[in-house]
Amino acid sequence: EEKDKVKLSYEDIMSQRTERRGIHVDQSDLLCKKGCGYYGNAAWQGLCSKCWREEYQRVRQKQIQDDWALAEKLQREEEAAYASSHGVQTQSTTPPQPGHASLGPFSKFEEKKTNEKTRKVTTVKKFFSPSSRTASKKETQEGKTSPSISRHASFDTDQVSKDFVDFLKNLQKPGREIHKQCRVFLVNMSSKKDLGADELSECVQDFYQNLADRLMTHFKGSSESVEQVMDQVEKYIMTRLYKSVFCPETTDDERKDLATQNRIRALHWVTIQMLCVSMDEEIPEVSENVVKAITDIIEMDSKRVPRDKLACITHCSKHIFSAIRITKNEPASADDFLPALIYIVLKANPPRLQSNIQYITRFCNPSRLMTGEDGYYFTNLCCAAAFIEKLDAQSLNLSPEEFERYMSGQASPRCSSAEGEWPHTGPGAGVAATNPVLAQLNHNLEQLSTISSRQEKVMEAAQSLQADLLSWTESVQREVNDILEKYPLTCTVSAIDANNIDNDNLPPPLTPQVFAG
């Protein structure tokens, strides 16, 4: 119930913030809801990793204690019922053996109770005792030949292992001990594939915590040195565990991924102005930063190590801040960043977004998520994903009718303002400017429509000219026929060409004369 209250409180705060000004989250909303000062996480109901683990273990321990109390209560009731109905008969028909103590009528229940407690203790140790983090010698020997550890490793995995060994050589003896602990942990994890994602996360986080405590003692409180070693340990461990712990079958991460992708596809019509994003993509430098931000957020899925996935989120966020700074000619604020991040996520539709968020949440070094710029950017990404899931008409400053028309595909926002102007986005604004890609598509469609209209007019004119030519030919032919009928032509033979002409009347032909030079 307490966890539900925390979850409701976190969602209510997010809803209230979005009602103020489309999209708005205060810095305090990103921090842990227990006031420890670290960054919270939507996947942890607004708590940081430290408080979430404490809350998780407290709830687990309470559940186990309640189960024990219920089991003991049921057992006492069963024993009492058995004693009242069969106690006398059992004592009379089963006398005690000479030389042996009487076991009494409750021996089978004592054995059952012992077995029940043994199972309960095993369950408790499975989650809360060091036995879940330390493998026995037998398990270690068997695990050394495990195919998932020693064979069929990819080139990337082999390269990471080589780099890890080279890094530990500089630490000499502590390096050998760290490598041994990591190998033992991997062998131990290979026998826990049937555990749920939360239990696997607990095992990894416990290993991080125990190893960090030892390193802190060795380096005498040098947090920077410990951080460097833990980064290498995380890279080595999670590269080998990636296939078995990323989007496991025991979770609904895949279903959430599909739901998020479908949701983002359905919101393809959302424009940069609807989100009140302070970025002008008509500026080449801004457009370049937007493309880089989209590339970084998509590239996150190709990384195996949680720290590398976080680095992609950080690079994406820095490109967003650069785009906002260039547009406004001043440093970007937190109120500018979150809407821009939401816009980038909607444009990119990153693959397996929920699985990547959950993977980072479960297996990243907790210190990176609790403080620093990585933790800040990751918390904002979680807020962006949560906002997209609950995005409605009020969030976009639209009327419910407009929102439903856009969602159903009955209408699409169009650019209604002059080039370079920011269109009106207040309530009742029915038309909004599109992003550059959609704007270019609309421009091309308008040109095609204009060309089609002009072609239709040309065809109509050509057909009219053809009809006029045919009509003119027919009219000319009719006029010629009328003239011929009115003035018929008569042909007469010339006398000079007749055969019976009297040649005697003709003058003599000319005779040539010769003149002496």
Automatic annotation (TrEMBL):
GO CC entries: cytosol; endocytic vesicle
InterPro entries to which the protein is assigned, alphabetical: DUF5601, VPS9, Vps9-like, VPS9_dom_sf, Znf_A20
GO BP term, example: vesicle-mediated transport
Region annotated Disordered, chain positions: 80-153
SUPFAM superfamilies xrefs: Glucocorticoid receptor-like (DNA-binding domain) (SSF57716), VPS9 domain (SSF109993)
Annotated TM spans: none
Gene3D superfamilies attached to this UniProt entry: 1.10.246.120, 1.20.5.4770, VPS9 domain (1.20.1050.80)
Domain A20-type per the UniProt entry, residue ranges: 26-60
SMART domains, per the entry: VPS9 (SM00167), ZnF_A20 (SM00259)
Biased composition (Basic and acidic residues): 108-119
Any GO MF annotation of the entry: zinc ion binding
Pfam families, alphabetized: DUF5601, VPS9, zf-A20
Domain VPS9: 254-397
Keyword vocabulary terms for this entry: Metal-binding, Zinc, Zinc-finger
Protein name according to UniProt: RAB guanine nucleotide exchange factor (GEF) 1
